[in-house]
Amino acid sequence: MGTTGAARGRPRTFDREAALAVAVRLFWERGYEATSVGELSEAMGIRPGSLYAAFGDKRSLFREVVRAYGRSPAGAFVGLALEEEPTAYGAFARVLREAAATYPDPSHPAGCLTISAATNVTPQDADVEAFLRDLRNANLSVFETRLRTAQREGELPADASPRALAGYFAAVVQGMSQRARDGAGAAELAEIAELALSAWPGREPGPPR
């Protein structure tokens, strides 16, 4: 009989998206360095050869993991807040308050994958650390751009520093992620969020929400 035009070779016998979700969780829990290809393939239910065939090497898989995480509710909330809120204060208030609820959520590993997954990597994996650092710095630039727009529109006083304020809120978010990984709960993180918001330039102190 003639060929049907179908791709030759053994078809994949696993759900790629389900396997990727397992990899997200494993890297999120353990970090890049402490997660081996053997552990990944075992948890994903595939052979190492199938992992390489489907995702490439460990670095390539990790980059895909980061993209998948960024599309998930736990990874997308920052961008959504900045896009959807009509005021800069409302956007940053939502970012901090949602971080306080999201980072300690017991339904997934604590903290933020892009903040914590590539700490203490070996020199040969420095590009992985740089990859995440670049993502975080890109988010910092988005923060600053939003704050500069707020200043032009009169929401921030003229003597405020959008650069410093963006760095401040980025540092608070990163610190909240680490506190969640150290066991802090939603109530503690919510208090931190409200305290951070009290530093908003020119805003009168008021009720938390």
Automatic annotation (TrEMBL):
Keyword Transmembrane: no
Keywords, alphabetical: DNA-binding, Transcription, Transcription regulation
UniProt keyword Transcription regulation, yes or no: yes
Domain HTH tetR-type residues, every copy: 13-73
DNA-binding region: 36-55
InterPro entries to which the protein is assigned, alphabetical: Homeodomain-like_sf, HTH_TetR, Tet_transcr_reg_TetR-rel_C_sf, TetR_C
Protein name as annotated: TetR/AcrR family transcriptional regulator
